[in-house]
Model the fold of this input.
Amino acid sequence: MMKRAVWQGVVAGTAGVLVMTLGEKAEQRLTGRRDSHVPARTLERLTGMREYPGRQPVAVNLAMHVGQGALLGVLRSVMSQAGLRGPWSSAKFAVVRVTSDQILENATGVGAPPQTWPRRELVVDLLHKSVYAFATGVVADALAASSPGPGQQHAAMRPGRHADMGPAPRGR
Done:
């Protein structure tokens, strides 16, 4: 399961980044919002790279943007492999995506907590991260669909969560 989850997650996460980026570019054309270089600044701080204030490191920005999305896609793939699929699981994953950004940006001093952001900026960020999460989920779920996950096998035995019921038998 884990080998499949890794390659499928990288594929799903990369697809999610592509869809998110296309949406961001469309939104930026409509709103006039400029590119954010927070991902680049965060990667520079995380890796100890030299920082160039006033310069927009596009390649570093892209590396962080795609790299983080591809890596987090592995987690969404693990969710799919375990049987956590569909919009409900993608919504949970959206929270993970936003949380990942915030941990890295705040720990490096590049970002500020979202509750301090202007509301419009916060809404735009949450929208784009949700697009990423749902697009990644669609791909991860499709790639995992060839077999039911352990959670789905358990639900097939008796739907819901029951204290008197053990796990599904092994090798099923």
The chain has a mean pLDDT of 91. Residues 2-31 form the longest helix (30 residues).
